[in-house]
User: What shape does this take?
Amino acid sequence: MSNVRYHEMLPFEIVAAREACPLAFVPLGGIEWHGEHLAVGNDALKAEMLAVRCAEARGGLAFPPVWWGEPREAYLMDANAADREQINEKMGLPPENFAPGYMGRSVHDTDRAYIELLLHVCRQLRSLGFRVVTLIAGHYPIRHQAQAAAEWFNVSERGRAQAWACSGYELVHGEIPLAGDHAGRWETSLLMALRPECVDLNRLPADPEAPLIGASGGERHPAEADAEWGEAGVRAVVAAINARAHELITGLA
Assistant: This one.
């Protein structure tokens, strides 16, 4: 299968792929606690592989993840979760590292800066010849900032190019009602399918009734995760993202 990662390709390969399908997939994520059994980069790792799978399935190119800039003080497990002190202890970090104001500016200003960063990404991709930009938010809360950036971009482009944002799970809820959680069965299964070396179920408590630190429980308990179910979820999400992205491409033709 041909390489679809833009940053790893030679210019002639990029031109051929872009002329065949001028669609860019941009993964968004960050660094955040995802239980003791998942890599802290889960969100971006997941989004990156979804971007690659989308491009491999129907064309377009996958770009490197945007790891930095998300509004951490407002939407981060380490700072906002009910069990954040336990998370900080596990990470060997003092709670004051996440005290209000630790990012040095207001949540409003951080939100705006992130939206502007994503708008910059969309405009740069337009300059590189792409007509539809799909922002894949592996960290669910930032889908809203991504959509705001996409709408800003769309207004300025006046139909010449289009951007949109998704997380993926919300597109398949009708098909997979359990889609979407934080380090529970869904996210754990997806990462098992996409990046199995970044998952270790042996780090979960032996007692399934034991409370989990910074992860979903109940019917979505991560101990129930498996790569086969994750692969089915990946295929459903990829199909749903591609359906919308290619609908936009067709609309611009």
User: Anything to note?
Assistant: The longest strand covers residues 23-28. The chain has one domain: 6-177+235-252. The mean pLDDT is 95. The CA atoms of residues 55 and 61 lie 5 Å apart.
